[in-house]
Amino acid sequence: MQIKERVALKMSDHFVRLIPEDIHISLDENSINLIEGLRWNENIPKFIFSEQVHFADAGQNFESVKCPSCKTDLIEWWGNAMSSAYSNEHGFVNLEITTPCCSMNMSLHDLEYNFPQGFYKTMIEVMHESENKAVYGDIVDSLLNITGVKWRIIYAHY
Question: Which domain holds residue 110?
């Protein structure tokens, strides 16, 4: 009898990233303990804290970026805006922009990303293997109750 060796294929990585709508929020020890105690479907939340502002992207899920006011596609303009806002030494330093389409003043964080993306100093990340997205809606509601700020769900695929 010939035994075939099984080779594990590398599957794509899926992550759920949760970032606060208030980019500059920090979590105290009590909040972290309460968040760790939420129902994460056997996933272990990873807390990421930084002094600098970073961009939480959706990886291969990134489809488009639009002006939330007039819905103009901003993808070509957006790359330059991101470069202008970024410093190698300090990360993202100035997210304030004026849209080229309708001259709206807003933050890069407030643009309409499909799939959702955004900026953070605090992020919670878990590996995501199932399609049960309802649990993350419940977690976002709990995060609002714990921290007093809204949170954004980012489904990232690499």
Answer: 64-114
Q: Are 107 and 96 in contact (CB under 8 A)?
A: yes
Q: If you count DSSP H runs as helices and E runs as strands, how many of each does the chain have, helices first?
A: 3, 10
| Helix (H) or strand (E) run with residue 142 in it | helix 134-147
Contact yes or no for 47/120 (Cβ under 8 A): no
Q: For residue 129, give both structure tokens.
A: 């293997």
Inside any domain, residue 3: no
Q: What is the CATH number of the domain that holds 47?
A: 3.30.70
Going by C-alpha positions, the residue among 102, 119, 101, 122 that lies closest to residue 110 is 119
Query: How many domains in the chain?
Result: 2
| Its pTM surpasses 0.90 | no
CA-wise closest residue to 123 among 30, 12, 21: 21
**Which of the four pLDDT bands, split at 50, 70 and 90, describes residue 21?**
very high
